[in-house]
Amino acid sequence: MEIATVKELYAQKENYLNKKIQINGWVRTVRASKTFGFIEHVRILKELCPL
């Protein structure tokens, strides 16, 4: 299974369009408020599957 970063997902959006993506990973830091939250420092394992 290929490992990708969030940076790669944003930089190569066209590679992920119209594809089902499963993501897994460890979250190092979570910041949340009542209406919005941030997930930081995520390393993602992805598996691309056609719809």
Short description:
This is Asparagine--tRNA ligase. This protein has one helix spanning 6-11; strands spanning 2-5, 19-32, 37-50.
List the helices and strands and how they pair.
Elements: E1 2-5, H1 6-11, E2 19-32, E3 37-50
Antiparallel strand pairs: 1-3, 2-3
General description of the model:
By secondary structure, the protein is mainly β. The chain is 12% helix and 63% strand. The chain has 1 helix and 3 strands. A 3-stranded antiparallel sheet has the order 1-3-2. A hairpin with a 4-residue loop joins strand 2 (19-32) and strand 3 (37-50). The longest helix is centred in the first third of the chain and has 6 residues, at 6-11. This is Asparagine--tRNA ligase. It comes from Pelotomaculum schinkii.
Average pLDDT, rounded to a whole number, is 65
Alpha carbon gap, first and last residue: 18 Å
Find the count of extended strands (DSSP E, 2+ residues): 3
Low-confidence stretches: 47-51
Work out the helicity level: 10-25%
Order of helices and strands: EHEE
Compute the number of helices.
1
Question: Which tags fit this structure?
Answer:
mainly beta; Asparagine--tRNA ligase
